[in-house]
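To the team - zinc ion complex, inputs and output below.
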Amino acid sequence: MRSILLILLLLIPAARLRGGGSPAEEMLRRYTAAVAERLPGRVGRALARISDPGRRLLAIRYYLNRSDSEIVAKWAWSPEEIEAFRRSDLYGTTIFELRKVQHAFGERNPGYVLDARMEIRTLGDQIHKWNSVHSVGSIAAMLHDTLMRWMADSTTMLDSLPTPVGMECFVAFLRSFQPPSPPTVAVPGLSQHGQLRAFDFRIRRRRRVVAGGSSDRIACEWDSPGWTARLHEAICAVSDRFTGPLEEPYEPWHYAFVHITPDVLAETQ
Ligand SMILES: [Zn+2]
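Output:
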């Protein structure tokens, strides 16, 4: 009896090392890998840093709904690109617009200060958030379960190895998946904070933060006391470069920022 137990104990880690899973999980792994190969190389490398299968699938769903050119244009800046931006005139005009808003807010709300986070969120930070944020995990689990049920359904008739027709069905299924509410962080690489195309504001009275960036305190910190409206009014009064706040997911502190580039200037002239 003891020897049987010992053999079983030795077999379990061996099965794990082989990546043993059910045939359906193995099939899902193959299809996921095949779709990832179709995406731009930088996306594939980011996906390799997401170990949870559900979170990886959910990320793929968001990448599939963007064009390759959009992904490349919006991808998180490298440290070198961030450095170049901080030395550019564009950075100067960005700060100028931001200071105008902060000044206008201070004048309209004596005793309160509007802070803005200036950090540029690197790809590593974005991947870390995707791998750890709870809202991503719960939607990812839902997508994973839905997909497993769909693949196991006899009417789906996917081949166990990815075929062109099977891939089309798989991609169509992923693209059409609608989470009940969006994740509270952007898919890795595509956060507006990765190119300083957005700011997260917070409101402070001396050292005390009265309205911050917590999703579960939006009603009591932002909406009820009126800070959502007062921030919006201050922004609209002095700058046309900000749009917001973010509606999905609702974040009254998050405003997108349009960089004043030569093409933007040309469009507005
Ligand atoms: Zn934000």
